[in-house]
Amino acid sequence: PGSTAMTSPPPGRYAHAVATHPRSLFFATASACDPSVRLWRLPSSCSGGVSLQALQPLPLPCAALAFGPEGDRIALCAARAPRVYLLHASSLARLAEASL
Predict the structure, then answer these.
(1) DSSP E strand stretches across 21-71
(2) Is the pLDDT at 35 greater than 80, yes or no?
């Protein structure tokens, strides 16, 4: 999908978890009220807002997420179930999932 400029979250929605990329101007957000993860790009200068790079719906709301050390993967933990997901960081494609 193309990028969408956005300076603030939609009304009534907010992130429950935020993770910053270890090597570039990206960050990911997850919400427990909207079961999805979003990948955002920060502007390279102070003149622009953040832009949405990718959106991946998930079967369960997420409570926590983190980028891997190389920045190529994102791990997520479900909010109300012992379930974890592993996503490709640039496309948010699901690579694996497991119950704990």
Answers:
(1) 26-30, 36-41, 50-57, 62-67
(2) yes
